[in-house]
Design the sequence.
């Protein structure tokens, strides 16, 4: 190459280098700007999330769970009940509304089983799909009838053929007011958060059954076993632990006195936490009159509170468990005819 050619090549490369430098500068500037903006957005979202976590315990779940998705998989409704008149009356109403809502749009409701833990068939066997299981040995429940519930689930899961992958644990005092979708999501069952189940406020008692090596007491969800939508294999693992924790709690006088009629609910919450299970907490799962006045888009009415009026027409509340105890030994009043639910 001649000297002239070399000079021309060198002079031509200077503008090219300038253009390359300017292009690199603007690309770097834009990249840094995008990174800084994204950091600000992430920080803002994190701050908002932290505020939500502080103000609403229902959001204390992984981000993917906060979207409150539904799985779409069919769920089997499992209703635990006794052969007492009050329980049978409630079971018939519950089953009636199950049939009303089962096939409506938006429903993932599959089969239905009444798990009768009285040990013997009753006169509703032909009306409601039922499987009979044994109660606890005499005297073991100490008059606390719902202590039979976890033992009933253990037996049912062992002997029944359940086609659905998911199970809804339900109770006789539930009424379906809207078609129920499957609110669970894979390894996260769905549950209703009860305001009176407070593991953190009862840490000294909870620690008797949920030792510190299992993690913080906040791992115990503020729930009972019902309503809960859960995978069948997951419940199969939890149920024996739930039964054992229930019996241990009942055997501990301090725990029995502190938890009273919700002891078995605490037992399920502790048992599921012992298995490392966290629930999606759905406030829209259920409503409880008279505290909730509108059904809206909620799915189940839980009529546990009696709405009674005194002679001054003043409303006061009676727990349903007390009302149930009053009615356990009463026969159906004369002249009252209850027709078969079709």
Sequence:
């Amino acid at each position: 190459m001649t000297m002239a050619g070399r000079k021309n090549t060198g002079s031509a490369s200077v503008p090219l280098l300038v253009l390359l430098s300017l292009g690199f500068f603007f690309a770097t500037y834009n990249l840094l700007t995008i990174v800084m903006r994204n950091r600000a957005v992430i920080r803002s979202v994190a701050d908002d999330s932290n505020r939500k976590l502080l103000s609403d315990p229902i959001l204390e779940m992984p981000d993917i769970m906060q979207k409150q998705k539904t799985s779409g998989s069919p769920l089997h409704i499992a209703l635990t009940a006794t052969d007492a008149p009050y329980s049978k009356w409630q079971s018939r109403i519950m089953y009636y509304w199950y049939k009303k809502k089962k096939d409506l749009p938006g429903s993932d409701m599959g089969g239905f089983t009444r798990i009768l833990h009285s040990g013997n068939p009753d006169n509703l066997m032909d009306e409601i799909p039922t499987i009979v299981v044994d109660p606890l040995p005499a005297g073991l429940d100490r008059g606390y009838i719902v202590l039979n519930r976890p033992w009933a689930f253990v037996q049912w899961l062992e002997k029944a053929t359940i086609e659905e992958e998911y199970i809804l644990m339900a109770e006789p005092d539930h009424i379906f007011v809207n078609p129920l979708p499957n609110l669970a999501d894979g390894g996260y069952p769905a549950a209703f958060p009860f305001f009176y189940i407070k593991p953190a406020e009862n840490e000294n008692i909870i620690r008797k059954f949920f030792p510190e090596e299992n993690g913080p007491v906040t791992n115990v969800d503020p729930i009972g076993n019902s309503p809960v939508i859960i995978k069948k294999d997951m419940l199969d693992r939890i149920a024996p632990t739930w039964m054992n924790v229930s019996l241990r709690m009942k055997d501990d006088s301090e725990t029995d006195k502190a938890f009273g009629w919700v002891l078995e609910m605490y037992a399920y919450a502790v048992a599921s936490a012992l298995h490392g299970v966290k629930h999606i907490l759905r406030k829209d799962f259920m409503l409880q009159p008279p505290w909730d006045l509108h059904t809206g888009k909620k799915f189940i009415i839980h009529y546990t509170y009696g709405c009674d009026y005194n002679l001054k027409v003043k409303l006061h509340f009676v727990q349903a468990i007390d009302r149930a105890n009053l009615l356990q030994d009463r026969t159906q009043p004369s002249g009252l005819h209850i027709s078969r639910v079709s």
